[in-house]
UniProtKB/TrEMBL annotation:
NCBIfam families, alphabetized: Pr6Pr
Protein name: Pr6Pr family membrane protein
TM stretches of this protein: 57-77, 89-109, 121-144, 156-176, 196-218
Entry keywords, A to Z: Membrane, Transmembrane, Transmembrane helix
Domain of life: Bacteria
């Protein structure tokens, strides 16, 4: 005998694929990062428009600001789309470049008598944007809009490749120019005519050690700072009205 046939159940339907929930846009974050991108773009733009000696694109400050502009423009687009933030090995490198730019100007370069003061309003505006506004904007973004404890000591060698590449660029450019050329070297401490290669590389090595210490300090501070971004997000979610289509 065969077993009695059981009542046929309705054939199960193929599982419906639900669309992934759209990530929430972050308009305030987008606006602040767009402003930071604008500041990092305006400084090099004014410098290029007004002209300087040596050419603007050989200045570490100008190149660093351009990298900041690209990173923050990209971050602003991702914030508007609700995409995840940039990886920490990129944001940490941008933060280090901005810190080097601000600290080197305010603590080192202003003490060189060879550094000429700007002679008109536009160079003054460019100097403030390049050396003060952009570094402060990058620091504010790190402190207020990013999650803590994401930077790693293992990232530091990657971050230091940018200053090392700039050193190679500046020395190569100086070697290719004829001796006595005006603004052969972009910064006084890189002047091979004055210090020789041994002296210049010694000063560069000392700066490299200082940059490594600064990167280590930034990484340590990242692991000690409070999660301001999380607090702001939590606070905003508490006061936000229920989404449409919720409980009725």
């Amino acid at each position: 005998m065969t077993a009695p046939r059981t009542a046929l159940l309705p054939r199960p339907r193929a599982a419906e694929v639900l669309p992934a929930p759209a990530a929430a846009r972050r308009p305030w974050t987008t606006a602040l990062r767009a402003l930071a991108c604008g500041a990092a773009t305006a400084g090099p733009a004014i410098t290029l428009a007004t002209g300087s000696t040596p050419p603007p694109l050989i200045h570490f400050t100008v190149l660093a600001n351009l990298l900041v502009a690209v990173a923050f423009g990209w971050s602003a687009v991702r914030s508007w789309r609700g995409a995840p933030p940039l990886p920490s090995y990129l944001t940490g490198g941008v933060l280090l470049l901005a810190a080097i730019t601000g600290l080197m100007h305010h603590l080192v370069l202003v003490n060189y008598t060879e550094t000429l003061a700007p002679s008109s309003a536009w160079p003054v505006a460019a100097t403030v944007l390049l050396h003060t506004v952009t570094p402060l904007a990058v620091a504010a973004d790190w402190l207020l809009l990013t999650a803590p404890r994401t930077l790693r000591l293992a990232h530091i060698p990657l971050w230091l490749t940018a200053p090392a590449a700039y050193l190679a660029l500046a020395l190569t450019r100086g070697a290719l120019l004829a001796p006595g050329s005006p603004a052969r070297y972009p910064y006084p401490f890189l002047d091979v005519d004055t210090y020789g290669y041994a002296g210049t590389l010694t000063q560069a090595l000392a700066l490299g050690l200082l940059f490594t210490a600064l990167a280590t300090l930034i990484t340590a501070a990242d692991h000690l700072r409070p999660n301001v971004a999380g607090w702001i997000r939590h606070r905003r979610n508490r006061i936000s009205p229920p989404a449409a289509g919720g409980l009725k």
